[in-house]
Amino acid sequence: xxxxxxxxxxxxxxxxxxxxxxxxxxxxxxxxxxxxxxxxxxxxxxxxxxxxxxxxxxxxxxxxxxxxxxxxxxxxxxxxxxxxxxxxxxxxxxxxxxxxxxxxxxxxxxxxxxxxxxxxxxxxxxxxxxxxxxxxxxxxxxxxxxxxxxxxxxxxxxxxxxxxxxxxxxxxxxxxxxxxxxxxxxxxxxxxxxxxxxxxxxxxxxxxx
Length: 209
Known about the structure:
This is histidine kinase. By secondary structure, the protein is of the alpha+beta class. The chain has helices spanning 12-23, 29-41, 56-71, 74-78, 99-119, 151-154, 174-184; strands at 51-54, 80-83, 92-95, 127-133, 137-144, 188-193, 198-205. It has a single domain (5-205), classed as Histidine kinase-like ATPase, C-terminal domain (Heat Shock Protein 90, 2-Layer Sandwich). A hairpin with a 4-residue loop joins β6 (188-193) and β7 (198-205). The protein has a five-stranded mixed β-sheet. The chain has a two-stranded antiparallel ribbon with strand order 1-3.
């Protein structure tokens, strides 16, 4: 069972730190090229699907705790709401690489909310995580009340080198690789703009025993 983020999966903590450092981007062109090559080597299409046994709710909480630990932001952490389905408390077989899109989307949400705090006076950040279950799949929805995404970028979010961040903070591969992961595990990643903020949903098929 999962009690702490670093306790599940083989090399999970190392994977999270490596992926996070790569996705945040670097300023020097040579370093960016090196990062791209590393991301290609990490490409989920080149790897087998491995599964860990844990409840979906615990899995989501572990990744969320990892992002909170990295950002070290008590204010943001205090504004997280969770609505976890009781049906997802039981142990299931979870594709380990699901940690990549979930970690990336949560990390992006924290960045967006931190940026909104800087630009808007009296802004109160809010992040809502919700899990749901159907007979065929379970899902995770991540909703924030940040600044949103420019309409001109909405149809290109999952293309490589498309980023909503400044050049020094990212090179636009996070969502591209996240979609690759979801395709690999037979799942789906869905983006919906909101009046205030955005919502990303990850649909994950159940692994039949």
